[in-house]
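tool_call predict_complex ligand=adenosine-5'-diphosphate
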Amino acid sequence: MRIAFATSECVPFVKTGGLADVSGALPKALAKLGHQVKVFLPLYQSISVVEHGLIRATELQGIPVSIGDKTVTFDVWYGHLPNSEVEVYLVDCPLYYHRPTIYTNDPDEDERFILLQHAVFQILQRYAWAPDILHANDWQTALIPVYLKKNYSWDRLFDRTASLLTIHNIGYQGRFPKETLYKAGLSDDLFYPMGPYELEGAFSFLKAGIVFADVLNTVSPTYAREIQTPEFGAGLDGVLRMRSADLYGILNGIDTEVWNPARDRFIVEPYDVHTLEKKQKNKEALLEEMGLPYASEVPVIGIIARFTYQKGLDLLKPILESLLRERAVQFVVLGSGEQDLEDFFAWAARTFTQQVAVYLGYNEPLSHRIEAGSDMFLMPSRYEPCGLNQMYSLNYGTVPIVRKTGGLADTVFDIHEYPDIGNGFSFVDISPYALYVTINRALDTWPNTDLWRTMQYRGMTTDFSWERSARAYEDVYHKALAKRRG
Ligand code: ADP
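tool_result ok
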């Protein structure tokens, strides 16, 4: 298949979140399955053409695009995703993309991504490259499915092209005033209360994409269901329910080159499922690094997270002290964010000097050592579209304790609820009590070495590779083509 993949961020060029990881990994995995993939993204100021070996596309210079009353021109640079055949096209427009940050609150934020989306079509037209699939991601490229059916439907090149919109985070919707329709080159006949373009009085790129895309997906099956409810849908649950039959959930993969306990260059003693005893060495080293005493029979619970409301770590506040007084357990915490959570963990480390150690900040090598050296990993998220750390934990033989939501619910199965496939512990209620009970359940299970080994084995032998995800995307692309081509 020919796939045009449009995104606002992509590793290794530019990253603010998970979308960049997906954009850097999925196209490569698709190429390995034999597909031709072209990636499109803006040439932000921060992207060095020299460092990435980008080449100016001499045949694609000064291409004009009408945005409202303006005519804006762009150039194109191209390169490849590292170690792959995947071509990357970067849209060069200093007027829009030379800003201190990649996303802004500037009054022309709408124009910045309108340009990107037109540029995708213009580049494809100039190469006469007819994609089977136009794959859009989040609000920044969500108008592409709309443009395919409205603005570029005259071009026979796209006659057989189907569209997929992937929602990585429903919280960002690209809401703009009605006037943006004109800049976007769309007529206002579909802008009316509850109509395809309208969301709470605003023009939402994401809603328009949801209405027009041939098929939709999000980054886990459970999150795909959750966003169809008022609690998780952020105002879009209604329109998502209307598209329910075309909405799929596909788990992201993990980078198994970087996150592999047998080849991890950050840990003292690499190990695999057959040499699990070596995990002890990593535990010893971790505790020494963090200044805690080591005892093989005392379990260590790891935490790595952005300290935000989403991650649910505040649920620990009323219960941590009791847990530490009642149980032989240690916590190793890595993260930063909201001040009151930083203060809370700093207090815990000061008060329980033998049981709690905290690193406030971002530290990638340490995050690997926590995954390798901990016995359990805690992730009590309020919501979690996919989540990576629980997948790393499973593959590292570090038994996860999670709230049963989003991608966590699709990857972690409670050992007491599902004895035959259980690989961790989970709870449903967003309450400190539910968390307390669940951590205690994990601590009570820990001495049962055989059962623990079974859980570790299940986690470590689960395939979270991008190849697996890419095959699932392949299926969804076929569904999109079937819809488009009848
Ligand atoms: P989210 O994308 O919502 O932050 P995920 O679990 O999907 O949550 O991914 C978080 C990623 O960021 C993981 O790779 C995790 O290891 C990493 N991470 C988060 N906080 C830190 C930190 N303080 N230091 C190092 N890595 C971190």
